[in-house]
Amino acid sequence: MGGFLLRLEVQDSGIGMTEAQLQRLFRAFEQADESTTRRFGGTGLGLAISKRLTELMGGQIGATSQPEQGSVFWVEIPFAIAAPRPQQLQLASFRGMRVLVIDDHEDARDILVSLLLELGMRVDAAASGEEGLVAVTHADQAGDPYRLLMVDWKMPEVDGIDTVLRLKSLMLHESPEFLMVTAYGDHFPQMKQHALASPKFSVNQSRHQCCMTHWSQHYSVTRRAMPLRCPRRW
C-alpha cells in the first residue's frame, strides 16, 4: 500500500536565530538565547515535546532561520493510504434480514423503517410492546422469525426494557436479537443495568460506518424529500 509525506511549515517575522542557536532549539528546557526566556517567557520544553512526538510518528521536525529576518519551522510526517472499504459487500449482508421496529411514535417509527428498507431488509412495524410481542410470536410460529428487533426504550405501559424481558420468557424456536433505541443519551447506564444480560445484536464499527455512509448519501440535504414507504402493521 502506498503512502505520502505531509509537510507543514509555519513562517514568522521575528528576531531570527543563528545556526548555533538553532542547534539548541529542540533540546528540553533550553532557548536559543539565555535572554529569550526573560524577554518572551517559556522554557523551551514545547519544541522538545513536538520533536519527540514527530519522531514517534516516523517523521522529522526542524527550522531554518536568519537573525533579524525571521524563522521557518517545518514538520514532515509520513501517512499510509488506507484501502477503500467494500461498502457494497457489507450492505449485501443486510439484504433479506427480517426486522421488526417497535415504537409508539408514528413519525419516528416510519423514518426508521424507511432507513432499514433502504438496506434491503424486510421490515414490519409495531406501535407498542404488546403488539410487538404478538408479531414476534406469529412470525416464529409461521417459520419466518424476526432476526432483529429495534425497540424504542421510552414507551407507555410496556416500555422497551420490559418488552425485551418479556421476549426472553416466550417459548420461541428462534429468539431474535435486539437493538434498544433511545433519544435520551443520559439514560444509557439505566438501560445497560436492566438489559445487559439480554441477547444483543452485534454492531461493529465497520457495519455501523457502512450504514451511516449509505444513509447520509441517500438522505443528503441536496436531495428532494422522498415519501416514506410504510410497512405492514400488525
TrEMBL record:
The protein's annotated catalytic reaction(s) are: ATP + protein L-histidine = ADP + protein N-phospho-L-histidine
Under which name does UniProt file this protein?
Answer: histidine kinase
Source domain of life:
Bacteria
Give TM segment ranges. none
Report the InterPro entries cross-referenced here. CheY-like_superfamily, HATPase_C_sf, HATPase_dom, His_kinase_dom, Sig_transdc_His_kin-like_C, Sig_transdc_resp-reg_receiver
Give all residue intervals belonging to the Histidine kinase domain.
Answer: 1-81
GO biological process entries:
phosphorelay signal transduction system
Q: Taking every annotated instance into account, which residue ranges of this chain make up the domain Response regulatory? A: 98-234
**Catalytic class of the enzyme:** transferase
Give the record's keywords alphabetically.
Answer: Kinase, Phosphoprotein, Transferase
4-aspartylphosphate: modified positions:
152
The EC code for this enzyme is 2.7.13.3
User: The organism's lineage?
Assistant: Bacteria, Pseudomonadati, Pseudomonadota, Gammaproteobacteria, Chromatiales
Any one GO MF term held by the record is:
protein histidine kinase activity
